[in-house]
Amino acid sequence: MLTIKEFFALDDIIKVRWGRHAFRYVDYCGLHPLRPLESGAYPCTPTNTLSFARTGGDGVHFGLLNARDETAAGPVVMTVPMKEANVVVAETLAEFLGIGNRMGWFELEQLAYDASRTVACYAAAPAEMSTQEQTFLDLVRTELCVAPVVLTSERLADLNRRYLPQLHVPPFEG
Prior knowledge:
This protein has helices at residues 4-18, 22-26, 93-100, 115-123, 131-144, 153-163; strands at residues 32-38, 49-54, 61-65, 76-80, 85-90. It is α+β, with helices and mostly antiparallel strands. It has one domain (4-162).
């Protein structure tokens, strides 16, 4: 089972291979590793998740439910602070990486705003990507042996029905 430890090992490979230019490869794909794992970055971040990556936009980040350390593998919860929303996007880290391995993970944040449009976007052929972006996605596929996963409304509904009630989100104190 693919764990955060392997995901962080990929980050090490990227840093060795591309050095200070790694940002150019990773940025638009929306999968910036958070090392060390973080908890509670925003008031709407579930307290029983550990965040392992961020998209690079508006504080959106991905965490693992009930994770204790780098051996965790899922479920994956996306937190969208601007919407004060949490969406369970995958049951495992492998499923999560498979969802974005054709076009990246940045657009997943739109699930909090318009889920049906976002699902349709992920079902369509990916837009043309830069050489750097494609190289990064190829590396994710090959190094982590991740196969493409189709994002569907039915799958999201099932995941959120099963796991959303388990999230511990502190009450808003504004």
